[in-house]
C-alpha cells in the first residue's frame, strides 16, 4: 500500500516539471470560443455566458478533465473567479455542485429551472469533474484509475487551472477563490499549496481565499465528533455513546474497514450504532425528510456500510442523472462518455486510495493562512457525518497554534430577519461559520443562507450582524 505520509516538496517539484512540459502545447486557444454553450436543452433564457469542455492534463492527450463554466450574471469582467470542487472522493462537481447545489439551473423533468440563489450572482464559477474517471472526465488508459491518490489529484487539478487560464486569458490575474465541500477538504488545501509553490517561480494564480464546507481536515477529530453529535441529537442512547467513544470509535472503524481488517468488536459496536440511528435517517441531514441521490452520493464514501444491499433507496428517480445522460445534453455540453456507459454522480471506475482520509490537511490550511490566503471553514449544522463540533475545534486549535486572536467573538449572523447561523473570526485571515438548518451539502438545503455566507466571504466583509 502506498505511503500515507503527505510530502509537499516532491509534489510541488513534480508539478513544476509537468507544467513546464505542458505550457506550450497546442490545446491553449484564447477565449475558449470552441467550448461556448449555445444553449442547454430546456434552459430558460439567460444573459450570461456558459462554456464546457475538456482540458488535457497529462501531455499525451490521453487524460482530460471536464469542466462547466458559468460567467457572472452581471458585470463578469469585475467579478472574481471561483473554482468549485465536490468531494467523494470521486464524485461530480457538475452533477452535485452545478445542478443540485449552487449552479444557475436545476433539472426538473425535461427542462431546467433557474436557481435564484446561484453563486454566479457573485462570481464567475468553474465546476470541475475531478479526478479523471469522474463524470465526463476520463483517462484513455484505464490503468490510471487504479490507486489514484491525493497527490495525483492535486497535480492534475493544478495543471487544469494553469491550462484553463491559457484557454481563457481574460481571467489571468483575476482574483481566484477555491470553494467546495466534504472530501474537498483534502482536494482544496493540497491544490492551493501547489499553486503557492508554483507562484514562487511564475506568478499565474492570484489565489485569495478558500471556502471549505463540512470538510474532512483531520481524520480523527472530524470522524470521532460524530459520536457526540449522535448522542446530543438523540440518535443514540447513553450506553451506546459510551461504547462508541471507548470500545471502538468511528475513526478506528473506518481505518479497519478500509484497511480490510474489520474486527468483530468494532463490527458489533457499529451494528449497535446503526440499529439506534436507523437506516431511515439521513446522516447528512438528520432533520430533513428528503432524498436526492446526486446530493447524497458524494458523502456515502465517508460512511462505509458492511451490508450495502440492505440500504433502502427511497429515491424514485434522480433528475440530474437523467438529464446528464441525455444525448442532446451531452452534445450541448461538448461531453462524451469514454470507458463508461453512463454518466454517474460518483465514479464506478475510479479506485481511490481511501486511506488518504487519514492524511491531515489542517496543517496545510495553517501554512496557507500564514502565506496570506484567507480561509473560511463553514458547517451545515444538521450534518452528522462531518459535524460542526469537530470543524470548530480544529479551527480554534489552528488559530491558537498560529497565534491568531479572536477578532469577532462567537455570535449569530442573519439572513434577512432570521438567524442564518453562528460565526467566529480569528485575526483577518481565518474564520468559522455555521449555516443554520443546513445539511452536509449546505447550498442544496439552505441556498439563500449559503449565498449570504458566500457573498460576505468573497467581499471580505463580516457576516450580517443585524436584521435586513
UniProtKB/TrEMBL annotation:
GO CC annotation: extracellular region
GO molecular function: serine-type carboxypeptidase activity
Record keywords, A-Z: Carboxypeptidase, Disulfide bond, Glycoprotein, Hydrolase, Protease, Secreted, Signal, Zymogen
Gene Ontology biological process terms, A to Z: proteolysis
Leader sequence residues: 1-28
Stated family: Belongs to the peptidase S10 family.
EC class: hydrolase
UniProt cross-references to Pfam families, sorted A to Z: Peptidase_S10
Taxonomic source organism: Brachypodium distachyon
Domain of life: Eukaryota
Function according to Swiss-Prot or TrEMBL: Probable carboxypeptidase.
EC number(s) per entry: 3.4.16.-
InterPro entries hit by this protein: AB_hydrolase_fold (IPR029058), Peptidase_S10 (IPR001563), Ser_caboxypep_his_AS (IPR033124), Ser_caboxypep_ser_AS (IPR018202)
Subcellular location per the Swiss-Prot or TrEMBL entry: Secreted
This protein's name: Carboxypeptidase
Record keyword Disulfide bond present: yes
